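Lab notebook, bench 4. Still working through the backlog of constructs that have no structural model yet. Next entry is a single chain of 329 residues. Request: give me the structure tokens for it.
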Amino acid sequence: MTLSIQEMEKRIVRYGDLQPCKTAFIDAHTPGSDQKENFTIIGCGVSESPDQHVHISETPGFNIGAAGQPPKCCNSLHTHRTAEVFFVLSGRWRFFWGQHGDAGEVVLEPGDLIDIPTQVFRGFENIGTDYGMIMAVLGGDDAGGGVLWAPHVIEAAKAHGLILAENGQLYDTKKGQVLPDGLQSMPLLTDEQLLELPELPASAVVPRFIARNLDMRARADAKPTKVLSGDPEALIIDKPGFTIDFVTEKTISTVDAQLQGRHQILMISQGHWKVTWQHDGETVQVVLAVGDTCAIPPELVYQIKPAMTGEAGLFRVCNTDDPAGPTLL
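Model written out:
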């Protein structure tokens, strides 16, 4: 298989070209959460707004998205039926979980990664001093409909004019919108349903579902670090329908043997990277920078290497034959 540079560029979403949506979720009007921006990079994501821009609609078995937030901006408590994995691109972030957000918490720095267990209520807040960005991998081709909000989040949103319908779409009463005839609002989770959701202490989440950048980099010497997979050598052992490896400037020589038949998504976390391949008998290349996302199609033989000296890092996400969830607890 081969691609022209023009064809490859259509499979790259540049950080500077990301188009945010400020009305993506039910808490878009709720004070403290009303300044966040949502980005859908690959796939339909979980946005509840028709205003959401999708950069690449074709899904490789999972979705790629991002959240950008100014300091002290919080993403409200919600849960998913499939995987939700984040890595910090910039800023300093507090992740917290539990029905009321008090079951446990952890602070992540740039390059750190967290695999939040399915069906656990989670939220996150930028606790840094500047605008921050976290990148997300969501399990399954169709991640829509997989998000459930804590009851108090839905009630607070309604008080500020937003109603979530049972079809997963938002209606803004401040704009005069009303639920169409025959369509009901999203029912709140019952007390019985809430009791079925796990409330995990930090001691159960932090050791098993978090990979620190320094640990990933320390392991990525002779070969890429297995960050998330069903392999017992992985830092996070889980089978959410995709694997995640971490590649540095020291491990590029081991990346040439490709995973044939698998989609590979390159997400740049540090430095600049050259992606090269053969087209019409010639070597062609594109350069990726921090925050860029590149969807490598199956069967394309390519090479990657840093474009300049110094530390460099990227996450490589590949689809598997495993189902999209739930998380292995």
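Notes after review: The longest helix spans residues 151-159. Residues 135 and 143 are 15 Å apart (CA to CA). Flag for follow-up if needed.
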